[in-house]
């Protein structure tokens, strides 16, 4: 049973020496627990935050101990009612091959209803983030024009497509490569997209959204946020989902210089934490599930194989190696 430990808190970009793949004992499931052989592990940008010990909404990973994260696996031993050997469960003990999991915290998932990896992505946490963030935090309504950054990623690609399916007047995305930009327009149906590495974000957004934006779904922060404030329409809304451009900063990044525009626009800016929105999960699955099944909502996954590559997959998310959800397959 191999598992990834955090050895030291990364300063700036995480380094290989901050982590170790450790051979650990096989866990024994106690009363009310199941033993799970993990099949798919999630790696997510928020994990960078848990590697630091700054006070946050979730406790830091402990040094010298196995890290955590979303995972889906098969039950190979059960001491719990309601979950049998052979069942598949979604749980929170990733970064390892085997886990003893409290049945109460495990969610049964059906590999016949959808591919197992999708419970970590398009039908899972990142999907719900997109759905709740757009519909609830950003109060999206039909006819809105929507700008989303990180648009070829797990959350962003779903935000843009849900907005389109729900009648957005225009959907604009930004991403970090020309290939990703092409995917947004040609496959996901975005009306416009640009590569933020090709020039000024403000200028490129102005060109892509000449009539301004009603909703900005922020995955990136920094100059993207400033550009969006600059293009915000009257009563525009900004949902702050993530700010991946600053996660490895060692000093706080300067904020947008144009926030006074919020007065003229009566703009609203609001943070979003997916954990607050699990009441929407049934509605999310009911509405988005059929779109995924019918192909109306498309998704990609970048799959990295092997527990030994779990760390590299995580670093890859920070670098932008992924298109869609980054998944580790064991
Ligand atoms: P993604 O699949 O979008 O992967 C992250 C992407 O960020 C990369 O692929 C890369 O794409 C992009 N990126 C990396 N560095 C930069 C940078 N400096 N500037 C612009 N883009 C960059 O991850 P997720 O979909 O899982 O998460 C997206 C965002 O949502 C993150 O900020 C994450 O923290 C946040 N999040 C927040 C949640 C909440 O509850 N608030 C829940 C889930 C996610 P590219 O090639 O385009 O640069």
From TrEMBL:
Print the keywords alphabetically. Answer: Oxidoreductase
Instruction: Tell me any Pfam family this protein matches.
Output: ADH_N_2
InterPro entries in the cross-refs: ADH-like_C, ADH_N_2, ER, GroES-like_sf, MDR_fam, NAD(P)-bd_dom_sf
> Where would you find the membrane-spanning parts of this chain?
none
Q: Which GO terms describe its molecular function?
A: oxidoreductase activity, acting on the CH-CH group of donors, NAD or NADP as acceptor
Domain Enoyl reductase (ER) residue range list: 15-328
Record PANTHER family: PROSTAGLANDIN REDUCTASE (PTHR43205), PROSTAGLANDIN REDUCTASE 1 (PTHR43205:SF7)
Q: What is this protein called?
A: NADP-dependent oxidoreductase
* Organism of derivation: Streptomyces cyaneochromogenes
């Amino acid at each position: 049973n191999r598992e990834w430990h955090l050895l030291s808190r990364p300063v700036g970009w995480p380094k290989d020496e901050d982590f170790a793949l450790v051979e650990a004992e096989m866990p024994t499931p106690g009363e009310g627990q199941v033993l799970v052989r993990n099949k798919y592990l999630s790696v997510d940008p928020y994990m960078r935050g848990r590697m630091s010990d700054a006070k946050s909404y979730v406790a830091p990973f402990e040094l010298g101990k196995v890290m955590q994260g979303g995972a889906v696996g098969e039950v190979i031993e059960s001491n719990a009612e309601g979950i049998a050997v052979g069942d598949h469960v979604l749980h929170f003990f990733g970064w390892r091959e085997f886990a003893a999991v409290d049945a109460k915290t495990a969610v049964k998932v059906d590999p016949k209803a959808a591919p197992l990896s999708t419970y970590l992505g398009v039908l899972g946490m990142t999907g719900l983030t997109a759905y709740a963030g757009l519909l609830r935090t950003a109060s999206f309504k039909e006819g809105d024009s929507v700008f989303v950054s990180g648009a070829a990623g797990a959350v962003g690609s779903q935000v843009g497509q849900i907005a389109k399916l729900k009648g957005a007047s225009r959907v604009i995305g930004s991403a970090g490569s020309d290939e990703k930009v092409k995917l947004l327009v040609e496959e996901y149906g975005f009306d416009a997209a640009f590569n933020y590495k090709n020039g000024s974000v403000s200028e490129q957004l102005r060109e892509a959204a000449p009539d301004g934006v009603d909703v900005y779904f922020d995955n990136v922060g920094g100059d993207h946020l400033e550009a969006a404030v600059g293009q915000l329409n009257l009563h525009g809304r900004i949902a702050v989902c993530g700010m991946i451009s600053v996660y490895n900063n060692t000093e706080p990044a300067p904020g947008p210089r144009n926030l006074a525009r919020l007065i003229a626009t009566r703009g609203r800016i609001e943070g979003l934490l997916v954990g607050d929105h699990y009441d929407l999960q049934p509605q999310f699955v009911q509405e988005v599930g059929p779109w995924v099944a019918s192909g109306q909502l498309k998704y990609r996954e970048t799959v990295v194989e092997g527990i030994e590559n779990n760390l590299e997959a995580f670093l890859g998310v920070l670098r932008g190696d992924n298109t869609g959800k980054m998944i580790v397959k064991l």
